[in-house]
Design a protein that fits this description.
alpha+beta; nine-stranded mixed sheet; 13 strands; globular; binds coenzyme A
Amino acid sequence: MAQTVLIRGSGLYTPEHSISNEELVESFNQYVANYNSEHADAIARGDTEPLVPSAAEFIEKASGIKSRYVLDREGVLDPERMRPRLRTRGNDEPSVMCEIGEAACREALAQAGMAAEDVDGVIVACSNMQRAYPAVAVELQAALGIEGWGYDMNVACASAAFGIQTAADAVRNGSARAVLVVSPEICSGHLNFRDRDSHFIFGDAATAVLVTGSETGPEPGDFEVLGTRLRTQFSNNIRNNAGFLNRSEDPPRSDADRLFVQNGRKVFKDVVPMVSELIGGHLRDLDIDPHSVRRFYLHQANLGMNEYIARRVLGRDATRDDAPVILDEYANTSSAGSVIAFHKHRADIAAGDIVVLSGFGAGYSAGSVVMRRH
Ligand code: COA
């Protein structure tokens, strides 16, 4: 018989250090001033365009972001460097992704009252992979002492929703008793802190969700997965070319083409209808009235985008209670964002309430997970 699929625990790792918009802009503007003074002659001749300063007010108004957590503050804020200083780990040391993912997993396991022996699989589902292989999930599986299997998957900001569907399918068909879906996002490693249009967008965090079946049925507090739905549609409007075929030493040039780039306006226009239609259609097919959904845990990239999506699904403006916001404090943490919103805003969900978790982003990709609390 097909298993009932339950989300029993969630976990969050938040880095110790945060950077406010004002601090980020101060460092960016120092870089701009340095660049313009170094290139003063070329700028005066009209051979080089001067760089334009950034503004904290613009960032908050355009995105809703006020601050972000990062694994290394000093390297990011150093105008001569503008990238995190993360020591390369030896092969016999845990990777950064493993370390922050493990912290999130341990919290999810503790919350669920479950142990490594109860879990069969680890899926690391995230955007920002720090190496090609071995899979970080296998390293994490060993760190947690889980028998069974682990693998990595990357569907950009929608990764957690895709990972939850994969885990739910494994539990439902009996190939795993329980699976941890882990999203350790070191977004600061892939962000171009010298790009005025996007230097403010991302932050770092790790999340974990414990997806389990149950021989004895749901326990109070469990979120039963009623359904999942995924959609992808190719677009170059959000892109990251980092990879071993894309080295830039020949000819030598900046690495800007191997960091995050996006056409933000186009993303906004394309992704809002894609996601609202996905969620609306998913609820319709499950025979659930969108107005009866207690809470939407949306991907946290841009406040305006979330407000539009919620409005299109609900047919009215959503309150912060309908669709909680964490991007003001965390910025965009890629696939971790919707899970952070879920983790921090799930305690007051009553038994019987329906909630929706949705991630969306590069690909384009979008996923919807509909759950009911027990
Ligand atoms: N500081 C000050 N002004 C800035 C600025 C900065 N850092 N960056 C851009 N601007 C200016 C631009 O120069 C432009 O000025 P102009 O009108 O005089 O030419 C103006 O602000 C508007 O720029 P634009 O890029 O069109 O802003 P926007 O309103 O589209 O907001 C984003 C930009 C990125 C916040 C927004 O498009 C967005 O969030 N889109 C969705 C992105 C997303 O979800 N991505 C998914 C990633 S997973």
